[in-house]
């Protein structure tokens, strides 16, 4: 139990380093944050245990890391612990041999959770351990065991660039593998006698009085209340930052500070995001989350409840912004999860959204490659509903699928319809590089425009027009296409907008142009051609 917490502390100490190891030149420096969130949730489950026997500890680690998992790195990490803990189920004490052989199970479960395992990642790190089980099993005590594990993982991390070209080009090791190394290094530190643990998550402050909830339309589903004790004196800019954040992600906001205690109330679709934001300013003292939809249904009459029978199909979509969320809702999406690039929702966030939809079949649209695995884990964990993950990698693919949505269609036909819609559209996503990097043998300069064609880098240039024209040239003949839709992001400039419109008017005037204010971060323009 305390080894796990020490491992978490050690990871937290190096979180910024792990974030900085990302090699893709878009704003996605969150591997350290994702892994930390996963471990911290495991710690919270451990701290809540009343009975600290081995079985309870293993269950807390397994369940806590799953519910806290964020991004691919977090989900894979949670599966490593799941395999490890399941292998030791029923044990009252764990021998060196049992611990060593549990690593094999950890490796199998982790690899099994990934459709296409990639070497040179955190998977490689756990594989190196599994391949050295006999060496680990031969160690005389746990100090020697963890010393060997650290040595093995150090080599695994060192070897990752030899297996993954992106790492070699950038001159870095894999972030997930390095994060896993720090976790095990923390275990080793604890076994050697460093038993001090500081995770900054213990709550000691007294809660303030309850806030009265005011009834309203259920645009947002969860009534979320937090009491947070500030780490220090509260500055005015901190108050404004939190208040602005709350207004962006919800409504019915009540927020004040009293004696360095934050008290907030907000109606939101993603209570996990609120918690994650506030713990950067202080320690959680109290959390209260109510599903207002269920509360409302609890009080309706029996006759009305009969009208609220479970419908055939329901939709859940991950959205990066309020504008995109409104578009999704207009297309019939039942539950929105805020997330995307740099802000991957946790499995807990996705699961809450799925469970809130009263339907026999639920279709989840992750809309980001780094969220697909988390959504798939949620689908596996829910038994009373048929949850289908439609592996959309961007917002445009989701919109294309939603256009063809038929609420009463059979599941197998609907899934096929979604898949066909995704294959048929052309998507263009435009962002800017946040650092110098090397990608696919090409040097990327900071601040260059990066244009992705169907999620693959198509062109890059400091000149916006030049980058766009090169990508449009690669598309080829689109004479049979009819509509080009542009979702304008919050960072798009009038000059960029004019350049894009002029190119479309001059070269693709046969296409009907539709423009929407998406307000999405990081991507000034998301484009779909259908």
UniProtKB/TrEMBL annotation:
Transmembrane segments: none annotated. This is DAK2 domain-containing protein. The lineage of its organism: Bacteria, Thermotogati, Thermotogota, Thermotogae, Thermotogales. Residues 1-189 form the DhaL domain. InterPro entries: DegV_domain_contain (IPR050270), DhaL_dom (IPR004007), DhaL_dom_sf (IPR036117), FakA-like_C (IPR033470), FakA-like_M (IPR048394), YloV-like (IPR019986). It comes from Thermosipho ferrireducens. Gene3D superfamilies: 1.25.40.340. It comes from the Bacteria. It holds the Pfam family FakA-like_M.
